[in-house]
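Would you mind giving me a polypeptide sequence along with per-residue structure tokens?
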Amino acid sequence: MSTKKLVKPAKTKKTVAATPTFQRIGFLGLGIMGSAMAGNLMKAGFQVHGFDPTAKARQIFKASGGHVSKDAAHLVQSVDVVITSLPSAGALMDSASVLAAAGRKGLLVIETSTLDIKDKEAARGVMAKKGVTLLDCPLSGTGAQAARKDLTVYASGPAADIRHLTLVFEGFSKAHFYLGAFGNGMKMKLMANLLVAIHNVSTAEALLLGQRWGIKPSTAVKVLSDGAGGSRMLQVRGPMMENEGWKEATMKVAVWQKDMKLIAQALVDAQVPAPLFAASIPIYNAAMGMGHENNDTAAVFDVLEKMSSIPHKTSVKKSKRLKA
């Protein structure tokens, strides 16, 4: 499996660039990630069309300068490339059926969602029957990172098709890597998310310790980020762990549960022991139980803080009576 970074083909005076020019990009799914990517592509000069079943998402997209399509079938008739950013396997399969029926032979579809590889393969099969090519290209990064064009694309599928999309990838990401056969993108994504799950909780542990010592989380993030203990999650989610910053979600805890299940199943299938990941699972489950399902995963800080809070005086007195 190659992890060679794709490089934009050099232009010469005598030859035409190897990368075709795709100017009209279509988005299926205009949630946190989809809307952010669409916005950056518009800034890069692309004409962006989009559809989302949620009226509010469509309104926000239109206000940002996007062209709203009435449905997925209408969208595919107006664009050169389609990018999907979907919440579930069901949504992907529904989209696959529409794209296969309404799309044209040779259409490229960049699938960026975090879903089971088997579901993506099933969707690819549906589209392939009509000559539409689905590419497995999940993303590394949060919604906030997507807004800053701070995403990494894990691209997998036919190499020639991936190369043709270089300028599109550059329009919404900071880096993109070709990882070989279809499905390798999701494998790398699950590896990345396994690290994210652990680093997010370890960030909360360190910042809570500092807070108990009187060190503000913002100060700790600034200082620790430049040292050996620094991590991307410390930089990205650390600031959200102060003053209940998790209330503005860039990755909702409820959505993250889907990713956790995919990682857990992958570990079982590969027979890989993962004690640190296993230890993080109850923390995220507790976040759901505490009502943080629509909050950012930085809310694990609140879970740990509540777990370690000093019992009320009544509880202490009761404990003493029981001992007596």
